[in-house]
Amino acid sequence: KIDYDDEEPPIASESILPPVVVGATIQPCIKNDEEVLRRIEAEEEDRKRKDVQTRIERENILQKKKEEEERRYEELKRENEQLKLENLAKEECKKKLEEAKKKSEEETKQKLEEEAKKKNRRRSK
């Protein structure tokens, strides 16, 4: 062990480690730091690219869902219009049937009344 109490501490040239070793240990650290920084930047760029890609994929999925919903809405709208037309046609048919039925009942009633009148005329003669 070196006792420095009585003397000045040694300067760099008198250091225990030679300057070559000191320089050699500093330089790889700087290189490693640069490599770490490059790797971190590359990872950040990769993450950003993946984030953008994920966002685009989500937007595409949402757009496809929206288009599918719009297509389904239009399809249901057409089906609804078709059903309305069919219901209107059914209502018209029902009305015509009711009218025909009433007319037929009236005609039958009139015929029966006429026959009854004829029978009454014959009886009264």
Point out poorly predicted stretches: 17-24
What would you call the shape?
rod-shaped
Helices, by number, come to 1
**Share in helix:** over 70%
Averaging pLDDT over every residue, what do you get? 83
Query: What is the number of beta strands?
Result: 0
Structural class: mainly alpha
Order of SSEs = H
Helix and strand topology:
Layout: H1 19-124
Q: What this model shows, in words?
A:
The protein is mainly α and about 120 residues long. The chain has one domain (about 15-125). The chain is about 85% helix and about 0% strand. It is built from one helix and no strands. It has one helix at about 20-125. The longest helix is centred in the middle third of the chain and has 106 residues, at about 20-125.
List keywords for this structure.
rod-shaped, 125 residues, mainly alpha
Compact overview of the structure:
The protein is mainly alpha-helical and 125 residues long.
